[in-house]
Hints:
Blueprint: H1 21-27, H2 30-45, H3 48-56, H4 71-77, H5 81-89, H6 104-111, H7 114-122, H8 134-140, H9 144-149
Region (Disordered): 1-23
Protein name: Ankyrin repeat domain-containing protein
InterPro entries: Ankyrin_rpt, Ankyrin_rpt-contain_sf
Amino acid sequence: MTDPARPAGSAADPSPDVPDAAATAEAADPRMLELAESLFEAARSGDIELLRSYLDAGVPVSLTNAAGDSLLMLAAYHGHAGLAALLVERGADVNTLNDRGQSPLAGAVFKGYADVVRVLVAAGADADSGNPSARATAQYFARPELLELL
C-alpha cells in the first residue's frame, strides 16, 4: 500500500516506474546477452584485440556478469596480464569485488599469476580488500614470492 506522505519511488514504496531486475533480464534482447557473454569469454581467453575494439566502440569497462565478475576479474583470474593492463588503462576499478566478495588481485594470487599481480598492484589494488584478501590468499597457499609483491 502506498503511503501518501511518501513520494513515489522512496525506499518504503518501490516505484512502478522502476523496472524489476528479473523482468528486465527477461526482456533483454537475446543478441545483447549473447554479445555480453562473448565479451566475458574474450576476457577469460585473453582476446585483447576483440575487447579493445568493443571498448573503443563504447562497451563499459565496468561490465559485469551475473556473478558480479568484471572483465578485469575474469582477465586476472585467467592470467592475462596484457588484457588486465588494457582494462586498467581504460578505467577498470582494480578494487571492485564480485558477488562473493573476491577481488581481481586475490584471484590472480590464488592462481599464481605474478605478472597479473604486478599489473594490479601498480594500479593501486588493495591487497587487504575482499574475503579472502589477496594477502590472506598468498599466506594460506604459501606463496611468499607473491606476498612480496603485495
